[in-house]
Amino acid sequence: MSDDVLHGPEEDPGERVERRWATVVTCIIAVLVVIAVFAGVQQAVLPQSRVATIDPRTLHLGGEFIESNLGSALQPDGSVIVRAVGQQYSFTPPCILVPTDSPITFRVTSADVVHGFLISGTSINLNLVPGYISSIPARFSTPGERHMPCHEFCGFGHEGMWGRIKVIDKAEFARLATDTKRLSCVAQ
Length: 188
Ligand code: CUA
Description:
- The protein is of the alpha+beta class and 188 residues long.
- Helices cover 29% and strands 31% of the residues.
- It has helices at residues 2-45, 170-179, and strands spanning 51-53, 71-74, 80-87, 90-92, 95-99, 104-110, 115-118, 125-128, 132-138, 144-149, 162-168.
- Strands 1, 2, 3, 4, 6 and 9 form a six-stranded mixed β-sheet that branches.
- Bound molecules: dinuclear copper ion.
- Residues 86, 89, 115, 150, 152-154, 158, 161 line the site of dinuclear copper ion.
């Protein structure tokens, strides 16, 4: 009894400091949780960067991704826009033709489920989400052929969902582009 009376008041300052510190730590944790929740919700609500929206049900009826507009289009400034669509279980066009040493922009979307768009040996790696246009700039310095596998599980035929990309000389590409407005290497 007398011990309590003696020690009680002596322990108070230490306890107060400890309680204050606990409050500070709790506040810090609370702030971190709020930041994490906010960042998570914001990321879930906003579409991924470099994308615009599009209705996947009407891709084939008109607009940018109508079949006749798919492939590589040489622009007046020498740049190239490549438009492609992924669907279970192929890419259209299945072989993409691009020139060397030119600024290229890929614009790709999905007609059904989430697919992956990856060009082997490059940092080009997109997710094709139905409803969104995924876009990425690229440049190829050497001619050659590269694989373009779907890297996102999209169903039973996923393993067989492959495309090719063929890089050809810039001058040759320009020559081909005078005859055909939308190039691909499907026939080659
Ligand atoms: Cu498409 Cu996997």
